[in-house]
Amino acid sequence: MIGNIVxxxxxxxxxxxxxxxxxxxxxVFTILGLVAFGIMPATTAMFYVIRKWIEKDPxxxxxxxxYKSYRADFLKSNGLGIALIGIGIFLYxxxxxxxxxxxxxxxHFLIMVISFFYFIFLLYFFPVFARYNMKPFEQFxxxxxxxxxxxxxTFAMIISFVPLYFFFNLFPFFFVVAGAPLIAFPSMxxxxxxxxxxxxxxx
Length: 203
Hints:
The chain is an all-alpha fold. Helices cover about 90% and strands about 0% of the residues.
């Protein structure tokens, strides 16, 4: 009994150490890319490591795996990131102008709906990037397709952020030391479930 408890505590501690280490790598490599050019490749590399963990490979060399992904996808991830930011800024200004100046309820509602789909598209973007080697258009198409064709996984991703929100409010220390991978983990997990089901259905 005591042995099982100690083993579980050690397992939790081991995973927490891995998450903290991954958070440190994410922060360091984001800064090394001067933040603006580091955050996308650092985030895709973080998702790539988490993908390996979820696929039952928990003992991968974290630094080597992270660094190889960061270096290999630096240009591609930044190019896609510029496109994503551009779309996000466009939607934000459309929403602001519609709310403050145009005042047409139907148009305002339409922009809100498009913004929601953009949000759930982002939930799949990084998991898709971490799993598939695709051209930019295919990357966007696959992410959007999954966001609308897998409502259960999409809903589960969104719901998973609720306990994380309360957890980080109660224990902000964990957000500082392991916030990014803790947020990324459920998205990658549920997205991976969608990948497996779709690939199994198509095989």
